Amino acid sequence: MSSFPSTLPSARALAAALKRREFSCRELMQACLARIDSLNPKVNALVSLQPPERMLREADACDARLARGEPVGRLHGFPMAPKDFVATAGIPTTMGSPLFAHQLTPHDAIMVERLRRAGAIFVGRSNTPEFGLGSHTYNTVFGATRNAWNLDRAAGGSSGGAAVALALQMLPVADGSDMMGSLRNPAAWNHVYGLRPSLGRVPTGPGPELFFQQLGCEGPMGRTPEDVAWLLSVQAGHDPRSPLSLAGDGEAFAQPLDAELRGTRVAWLGDLGGHLAMDPGVMALCEAALRHFDTLGCTVEPAVPDFDFDALWTAWLRLRGFIVAGALQGLHADPALRAKLKPEACWEIEQGQRLAVPALHEAAVTRTRWHATLLELFERFDVLVLPAAQAFPLPAELHWPREVGGRAMDTYHRWMEVTIGPSLAGLPAMAVPAGFSPDGATRGLPMGLQLIGRPGADLEVLRLAHGWHQAVPFADARSPLLAAD
């Protein structure tokens, strides 16, 4: 066997090399553990870390299976750290809450089952904000996760720990979840890729409610689109325990992503005609990045959906409040437990509890009209593009910005409104790097774009992202923390 490379190979190349026994699962585990030991204390991306000796024994068991010629899964021997929001047997699932700081679930979530069955070794969990609420990964159980490019800045969220672990090569691939950009915002802020899949692409559950919960989903993150697709090939596919999961399996996502992209029609939605507040420099950087579509032979045209975006935001608040209140109102009802909830969680619950049935129905109707509006837009375009965030990475000590682009933020999450469109429509939306801020206080901080596809067009979005990765000059940029490591 040759020595393990200093830079983690792509997921596909890594899986192939392990099967050919070019290097061992133990060597891979040693490399990841060494990176975690060196960099995780600086960024706090991974939590509930498991004993290294046990991880090495599990890696040795993976090597033994390969030596015996046994069939293995696509993630065989891959160190992974499921997001600390999804049930994972044997490791605490805290959800970033002091109320569940020592919770051990008796079962795996469906997605975690699939990772485990594919051969992943769980070295710990990736950090998340309390109950996944907010686009800044901090909590009172483990603390804040720092940005992979600047330790004074936030990692984004709620899959912030996963994004930072990827950017700093602690893990080959990472899972996350997304309701309001939680796979997209941290990917953009850490110069990696994150895909919010189509509604039902990755089955959710088991859980107490699986029919109305249609805003949040689980999905993949990676350093390249091919890595994202490789992980999605394991996560995706119907499960009868998840009633809204899509038919089929994930085999298509394991195939090469090379495709002819010339003639692809791209709609640049920008700031939705001035509706979205944007911090200085975000729009300029994103619009400058659009020229890379020219390299791929795509055409780009500005477009703004004909819709009442204030009504869309109102619908979002109602539907999100309904879901969060349903999940957490039992905690809120007990004064002793409520005192341990963060203020934003209490606000969401109280919003949901005040909902009248007609208002909830109106929100569902607005959502349906929005879906129809986007279908009309897809008659003219193949993909829609938005910024992946409305601000560059925040100062790490700031829980959420009170102002963006000179406009006051009236809720703790208004500054991530740019992500709600794909979530409400159930569309595949992938964050891709757009480059780095060129000057000022945000100099050198990453930003990204969202590539949004038609319903069910996850593969087409991944193929376009793959072309983008090959076209942009900053695709292989590495964090200065890696250079110093």
Task: Kindly summarize this structure in a few lines.
The protein has helices at residues 11-20, 25-43, 52-67, 110-117, 160-167, 185-190, 225-235, 282-289, 292-295, 309-332, 335-338, 343-353, 357-377, 420-425, 458-471, 480-484, and strands at 46-47, 79-80, 121-122, 125-126, 174-178, 193-196, 217-222, 265-268, 299-302, 383-387, 403-404, 407-408, 429-436, 446-452.
Distance, first to last CA: 25 Å
Shape: globular
Structural class: alpha+beta
Q: What is the subunit organization of this protein?
A: single chain
Number of DSSP strand runs: 14
How are helices and strands ordered from N to C?
HHEHEHEEHEHEEHEHHEHHHHEEEHEEHH
Low-confidence stretches: none
What is the strand content? 5-15%
How much is the radius of gyration in Å? 21 Å
Q: Name the average pLDDT.
A: 97
Largest sheet: 8 strands, mixed
Order of strands, main sheet, comes to 5-7-6-13-14-10-8-9
Number of helices: 16
* Helical content class: 25-40%
Could you walk me through the main structural features you see in this protein, from its secondary elements to its overall organization?
With 485 residues, the protein is α+β, with helices and mostly antiparallel strands. The protein has 16 helices and 14 strands. An 8-stranded mixed β-sheet has the order 5-7-6-13-14-10-8-9. α2 packs antiparallel against α3 (52-67) and α7 packs antiparallel against α15 (458-471). The longest helix has 24 residues, at 309-332. It is globular and about 60 Å long. The two termini are 25 Å apart.
